[in-house]
Write a structure and sequence with these properties.
Blueprint: H1 3-29, H2 34-40, E1 78-79, E2 94-101, H3 105-118, E3 122-126, H4 132-135, H5 137-146, E4 149-153, H6 166-184, E5 191-192, H7 201-209, E6 214-215, H8 230-240, E7 245-250, H9 260-269, E8 273-274, H10 277-280, E9 281-282
Parallel strand pairs: 1-9, 2-3, 2-7, 2-8, 3-4, 5-6
The structure holds zinc ion (ZN).
Zinc ion (ZN) is lined by residues 100-101, 154, 158, 195.
Length: 285
């Protein structure tokens, strides 16, 4: 298949999946189970991104199982595509975990410790007025410096950008950008994640004018924006940690920390390479 046609086909499938994931996330916030919603809302058979049959579960792997560290990826990096991204191109078994918000300092620290222990690579989408980032800034700085962690923009106060004025959209994005620069010495450009996944042409245009030309949505979720059990998160991880997926998690509640060994095991078993967005994409100058 022509590569451009393939990517277009891929994108159309992804948009459906992304919408399902957004809907599940919002239902989760409403107190409904995102797990049961997503179990019914799986991507249709037309998507080229779902391997068949699905990988086997990792039930034989215990907390004592020891794996080698994740490799530093050596990829032929490509320019950041314009517009929204929800998954990764190619078929190299890449997996981008993106973790949002930061309501729980304990959870951010747990992710940082996991990265240090395993060599895992990930992107945080930072809501800059949430306390977890300052609380862990020294450890985060080291992991940013080593390239294992990337910081991106998830606004200043987590407003639904489609429902606020132009000026508030600007304030939300520039507030977070200033925080990232002042605290970690990095820019989030061009990556931002609109809170709740809410984005329209107006928001996208304002963001692009501020250097945020790549909204990042997702193709699979841990369903953990609200409090849920480790068992629910593991089921979601089992469902969604698949090649070339951008998966969303949240640093809001600690139960996900009980799942990190399981997540590590899934990635090794499925031969997935965890990456930051910078590992694959060259940022615009
Ligand atoms: Zn969020």
């Amino acid at each position: 298949m022509d590569r451009r046609l393939f990517l277009t086909t891929l994108a159309s499938g992804i948009l459906v999946a992304g919408a399902a994931a957004v809907a599940a996330n919002e239902l989760g916030k409403a107190g409904l189970s995102p797990f049961s919603v997503l179990s019914d809302g799986r991507i249709g058979s037309g998507s080229p991104n779902i391997p068949s049959p699905r990988p086997t579960p990792t039930s034989s792997i215990t907390n004592e199982t020891v794996f080698s560290r994740f490799a530093v990826p050596r990829l032929n990096r490509i320019p950041v595509p314009g517009g929204t991204i929800s998954s990764l191109p190619g078929n190299e078994g890449l997996l981008a975990l993106t973790v949002d918000d930061g309501a729980s300092a304990e959870t951010v620290k747990g992710y940082c410790d996991f990265v240090e222990r395993t060599g895992f690579r990930m992107t945080f989408f930072v809501t800059s007025t949430y306390g977890a980032w300052d609380a862990n800034k020294d450890q985060l700085r080291k992991l940013i410096e080593s390239g294992h962690v990337q910081m991106a923009n998830h606004t200043s106060t987590h407003k639904a950008l489609t429902k606020v004025s132009d000026g508030e959209v600007v304030d939300e994005l520039t507030g977070c950008e200033s925080y990232l620069r002042n605290t970690f010495g990095v820019s989030g450009h061009p990556y931002f994640r609109p809170p709740f996944g809410y984005i329209d042409d107006r928001v996208a245009n304002i963001a692009a004018g501020l250097g945020y030309s790549t909204p990042v949505l997702w193709y699979g979720t841990f369903g953990d924006a609200g409090r849920c059990t480790p068992e629910q998160i593991q089921a979601m991880a089992d469902q969604w940690l698949l090649p070339e997926h951008i998966v969303i998690g949240h640093a809001n509640f600690p139960p996900v920390l009980d799942c990190l060994n399981y997540i590590e095991a899934i990635l090794h078993q499925r031969k997935l390479q965890p990456i930051t967005l910078d590992d694959l994409y060259v940022r615009n100058a």
